[in-house]
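Dataset card, provenance and construction

Sequences and ligand SMILES were collected as paired inputs. For each pair, a complete structure of the chain with the small molecule in place was predicted and serialized as structure tokens. The example below shows a pair involving glutathione. Curators did not alter the output after generation; any descriptive sentences attached to a record were derived from the structure itself.
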Amino acid sequence: MKLYYHPFSPFARKPRLAAALLGIELETEKVDLFAGEGQRPEFLKLNPQGKVPTLTDGDFSLWESNAIVLYLASKAAKSPLWPDDARSRADILRWQFWETSSWAPACMVYLYENILKSMLGRGDPDAEELKKADEKFHRCAKLLNDHLAKQAWLVGDSMTLADISVAPTLMHAESAKYPLAGYDHIRAWFDKIRQLPAWTSTEPSA
Ligand SMILES: N[C@@H](CCC(=O)N[C@@H](CS)C(=O)NCC(=O)O)C(=O)O
């Protein structure tokens, strides 16, 4: 299986993290989004959105990071990352849908305004956009923090695909200035994930 990724992409970090934890060796190819490689016709055949991550397995190509981590877990041997019971699986899917619909969109505003905009030469951060983002971000962060106050991992009592899908968005939290002050349970949970060899081996600098 081959993963098209970019080292700074939090979405592409998910399948890399999942593969490392599941013991799956992936062939990887960096797509230099900043050089426009996402729009190459050969890549658009694999993913018409021109985005990473994109996975190919033979003639099957799959995009959307949460679909990819589910595919990897389904292909792997039985793993506690994707427990074999309906309730845990539905719970994991719940967090993955929440990540896509609420958490990532809230976080991405900081990433765009505070990092990407200057990299792309699109001017200074827009204070109005950041102010609007704060409200959405705090609603999500409070929900996540309150949940993690009750349990160490998002689903059950060990790490699952839910953590793999929700945590990577935090990889740029400091440089993108996410307003995380006071969310101690999120910090403690993320610190545990950051210490995993699978996390350090998928750092952009690794
Ligand atoms: N919902 C998608 C988001 C993927 C995404 O937005 N990837 C960004 C990199 S972080 C990308 O490839 N952007 C290139 C573009 O929009 O042209 C997923 O979870 O896979």
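Derived descriptions for this record:
The mean pLDDT is 97.
The chain has two domains: 2-75, 86-199.
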